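Notebook, student rotation project (T.W.).
Task set for the rotation: take a protein with a known small-molecule partner, predict the structure of the complex, and write up what can be learned from the model alone. Partner molecule chosen: magnesium ion. Sequence and SMILES entered below by T.W., checked by me.
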Amino acid sequence: MQHIIEMVGVSKIYPGGCAALKDINVKIGKGEFVFLVGPTGAGKSTFLKLLFREELPTRGQIFINGKNITRLKPKEVPYLRRRLGVVFQDFRLLPQKTVYENVAFAMEVIEASPREIRRRVPKVIEMVGLSHKMNSRPHELSGGEQQRAALARALVNNPDVIIADEPTGNLDPDTSWEIMKLLDEINKKGTTLIVATHAKELVDAMKKRVLQLEDGRLVRDEERGVYCCET
Amino acid sequence: MQHIIEMVGVSKIYPGGCAALKDINVKIGKGEFVFLVGPTGAGKSTFLKLLFREELPTRGQIFINGKNITRLKPKEVPYLRRRLGVVFQDFRLLPQKTVYENVAFAMEVIEASPREIRRRVPKVIEMVGLSHKMNSRPHELSGGEQQRAALARALVNNPDVIIADEPTGNLDPDTSWEIMKLLDEINKKGTTLIVATHAKELVDAMKKRVLQLEDGRLVRDEERGVYCCET
Amino acid sequence: MKLRTIRYFFREAFVNLFRNGWMSLASIGAVASALIIFGSFLMISINFDYIAKNVESQVEITAYVEDSVDKLKINQIEYNIKSIDGVKEVVFVSKEQALEEFKKQVGEELLEGIENPLPNSFRVKVETPQEVAGVAERIQKIDGIEEVKYGKGVVEKLFKITYWMRLVGLAVMAIFAAISVFIISNTIKITVFSRRREISIMKYIGATDWFVRWPFLIEGMLLGFTGSLIAIALLATGYSYLYDMVKMNVPMISLLPIEEFYDYSLGLLLMGTVLGAFGSGFSIRKFLRV
Amino acid sequence: MKLRTIRYFFREAFVNLFRNGWMSLASIGAVASALIIFGSFLMISINFDYIAKNVESQVEITAYVEDSVDKLKINQIEYNIKSIDGVKEVVFVSKEQALEEFKKQVGEELLEGIENPLPNSFRVKVETPQEVAGVAERIQKIDGIEEVKYGKGVVEKLFKITYWMRLVGLAVMAIFAAISVFIISNTIKITVFSRRREISIMKYIGATDWFVRWPFLIEGMLLGFTGSLIAIALLATGYSYLYDMVKMNVPMISLLPIEEFYDYSLGLLLMGTVLGAFGSGFSIRKFLRV
Ligand SMILES: Nc1ncnc2c1ncn2[C@@H]1O[C@H](COP(=O)(O)OP(=O)(O)OP(=O)(O)O)[C@@H](O)[C@H]1O
Ligand SMILES: Nc1ncnc2c1ncn2[C@@H]1O[C@H](COP(=O)(O)OP(=O)(O)OP(=O)(O)O)[C@@H](O)[C@H]1O
Ligand SMILES: [Mg+2]
Ligand SMILES: [Mg+2]
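Predicted structure of the complex:
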């Protein structure tokens, strides 16, 4: 199996001294579905932020598709990010744009054709069950609706890797299940998925690879794992 | 039992036409612990926003402690809000202030004495398990840490009613449990609690009164209820 | 309101001033620029007035005395002129003095050996230049005065010019005062706008309008005050530099000495401070309605 | 870059202009105010120059001809003067004309019956007023010229004044140009700052720097353009009003006609537009670093 993501000896110490990640070594293969679990403040979001270069590691190397992304020139960063679809924990929807425009924006960035945009955007919004809110602005949406809008934006360009930071934190169990099934389908088509989550039941039911962080350390890496209550 | 909160025929239609709440009639007694459940977009946050006057109902009356809060003059609104402790779904921490300052601010608003502030704030931050992040700004916190900071701020003034909108959405199951136990303790001391949540397991385990919203309607009101998967 | 709350307001204002870093600098810069502009116009306008006064004060009346009048009568006439209301200064110019001056003007050699055709005269200055016509008329009526001249027509023109100088100066100053106020309040409005979320959060926590507003007001005051100080310092430096340069290089133009502007600087300082405070205080209003 | 992307940039710029509502208005207002200030000083400075030129062009040389010179020789002298480099206009003033003028000046009756002491003379105007001394010297050397006068001393003073008028005008204009640039870029910087979150989100989605920047640049350009148009319209209205007022009420001062400002307005328009565009383009930079 080819490794699409590889972390070698990665540590992240935030200015201020908080060591959010400590010597992480991990390989993720193409097409894998990985859950990232751990208590609050364990470093899950930091782990994901390193992948799309929101943060740079203090030590260590990160390879995506064999390319060392800690050495990227600022000019190359956008092209890295375009191959990743990210659902941010705090959503990061553009406040002035409607759901449709937010999703379309991700396609405009890669200079997709207007026809393609008009075809694809409504389809993806439908997939996350937000068709009825297509023309609402983020501040007119409920928490769960914002979360799904963020998910739709991450999916729209059919990225190689989808990085989702608690994509069901604001969703009821039923909707969470649907979203997970959707992600599973996307994964089956070959997309690599990395999902940080606290949804114990979902993790237990899905039986995917589980990476557990604890206080910045990778304490468990289990194929077909469970959320695990005690470590 | 005395009713601290009473909604009479309350409807909320947002500008744009979305009917978020439809003819809600509900009474909540002093010292009750109420879960507000329902699928995403059902109107839970709207329900809570009506209580602290972020939104005004389109129709109907809302009484808190027997006072009709839909008729409050703008000048009276702050005094209503001071009797409520609110955990917002989107946290609403002041971005320029540290965790300590954010919590202290809620006490400064009610003109508490500096001594009282210095005594009480660290205690409450300790209660939510955030002592090690006391001097961090919100953007330096993980999602779960922000959520607990917001909770600390809601608790600090010992309000009559605590309104929490998904206070565990960004927390792992263990931490969620601790937070719930904390809220239960506070409730046992006489504070009324209204908690909107998607955490099925917690609701099922706590056996409190459950109000279920579905598409803006109150479809279930059960003492010692469960989250309930099918309606 | 409790004393500790007032202390909190001031602490909060100072802390925000520093936390907002370059945003505060930008506001201070805007206040400073606006007041430099307004201050410059103020100075120009005041100098206009000063120069106008200078020029006006040079207006004088020449009263020619009849040739037949003797020394004694002349003293009497001088006394009569002096006792007219509004006369400031009377100088007697004898035939001989007049000829001397005339020779200087026209060129000595041309008038050599000609019998002096010029009469005795008085030069009269008035207190308020605008009264010159009235005074001239009254001098005319004095016995022994042959003719009165005061540049009729020219003086009127001069007054018209100085009147217009003043009017335009004032109008332009008023316009630029308005523009300065706009620039200051505009900038402060934008900075407050960029903190609207903060303001709404405070309100949701249960803060009263004034609890939110006071620190903003004080912060605005500090910004305005600092900006004004900078403006005043730069204006003073610039003006004294200009003053020295003009004095050295163009001695015939005399500008108002800088001391005269002390009171005005206080005005500028007040203006900046008040605008800063009220700009913040007012702009915040619409964000408090939550 | 694809054509559709360019179309997207423009659509985005226009949409943001409207979505940001009063923030856009505030920026336009800032550009307009700053350019009104700069434009006013530009107009003042240009009028200073114009008035200085007017005054300077009135400088003339008077060349007195020796009494002994006859009619023919006078023609010859006139020809000689005309052929001097830099001479613009030569007017012959005969003894009789000179006396007439002198009488008007001094008062007819005083000079009645006196033999005419005044010589024939030429009044010479030069092309560049600053050359007056040189030309005067060369006229002096012409045979038959007794004396040359051009207000030596006074003319130098005059030039000194006009020189200073121009210098101060330019310096003040430069200072106010700088202040205007500061006000515009300052305001735009703050508005961009208040959208920094948006900018960073776009970058996180995978937008290149220029993809984010272009709409801002175009938006800034539109803001600047609109602001400049408003400034120009107000300046033109104000100036033509002033011009008419001055013309009616103070006919002795002549301001530059408004037509002369057409080219300058184009300059202002360009300045506003470019400042708007670059202000946005530069301010955005630091928020792109994510
Ligand atoms: N910008 C920052 N500056 C300083 N410290 C930070 C910063 N971001 C995160 N941290 C700290 O790093 C640690 C890990 O944070 P991270 O966001 O990765 O946690 P997490 O596992 O995502 O938690 P959660 O489940 O609550 O979202 C936390 O203790 C947090 O306070
Ligand atoms: N400001 C608004 N303007 C227009 N519609 C709104 C606004 N706020 C909420 N809505 C709509 O009202 C409905 C109820 O929203 P609400 O936030 O109350 O849902 P919720 O139950 O809290 O959902 P979640 O669990 O996802 O947070 C949603 O369909 C939402 O889109
Ligand atoms: Mg996180
Ligand atoms: Mg909600």
